Amino acid sequence: MSANPLRDYFEHNNGKLIHKWVHYFDIYHYHFKKYRKKRITVLEFGVFQGGSLQMWRKYFGHKARIIGVDINPKCKNLKEKGIEIFIGDQEDRVFLKELIQKIGNIDIVIDDGGHTMKQQINSFEELFPHVNDGGVYLVEDLHTSYWNDYQGGYHTKGTFIE
Question: Could you give the domains of the chain?
């Protein structure tokens, strides 16, 4: 067993599939450990097969409110005790505003959604003002800021990095 319970969970996972870069686990644990076993709200864009939501439930404990958001309507079926699922496009500012109205302020946002520039930027601009003081807003896969297929490019205006 390592000193990182998230990495341990990932390496020994028997639940739903989790798709994460291994080096993220040290970053997560460093920034998230102070929230364990507390009454918090965690929102993750990008449900995929639901494994990371189960991981967050285990890591943060039963007091945490775990919310997943995905554009794929099939992800609604991944709802389970302690895990809420909302379906919508994180690029859609109207959806994001309605989401905040429904869930209230957030302690941790994990953006592992579609990774396009409009999705990342719109989500950040709409949600960051609703992150509680001392909260964490974490955006994964920022390398897409340099990929044309995601509306990115090196030194391109309008990317999340720029």
Answer: 5-150 (3.40.50.150)
